[in-house]
Amino acid sequence: MITRPALTQLLGQLVVDTAHEGRIGVLQDLAPDSQDNPYGLVILGSDGPDVAWLRAPGGGVEWTTEPDAIEAAG
User: Which of 70, 64, 61 has its CA nearest to residue 51?
Assistant: First the structure.
């Protein structure tokens, strides 16, 4: 398991999302999920668990995954 400090060093880098069939993405942020927000906004100060926010290397729709599912890309 990768630690949070190690994850923050991967921000902006290519990573592997092992929870989504090894999908490759750029780690954008570690922040609370916005599922419970009807407007789809991330609320500052949320007490929910952080998720990893990723986007495809060439751009596109972001997705979230568990921080434990992130590995540095080769």
Answer: 64
Domain boundaries, the chain: 4-72
Q: How many H-runs (helices) and E-runs (strands) does the chain carry? A: 1, 5
Under DSSP, the state recorded for 48 is: S
Q: Which fold has domain 4-72?
A: SH3 type barrels. (2.30.30)
17, 23 contact by CB (below 8 A): yes
Q: What is the C-alpha to C-alpha distance for residues 63 and 55, in angstroms, rounded to an integer?
A: 6
Quote the pTM value: 0.79
The token duo for 23 is 């999908």
Chain centre distance of CA 55: 8
Residue type, 58: G
What are 3-39's pLDDT values in tens digits?
777 888 999 999 999 999 999 999 999 987 766 656 6
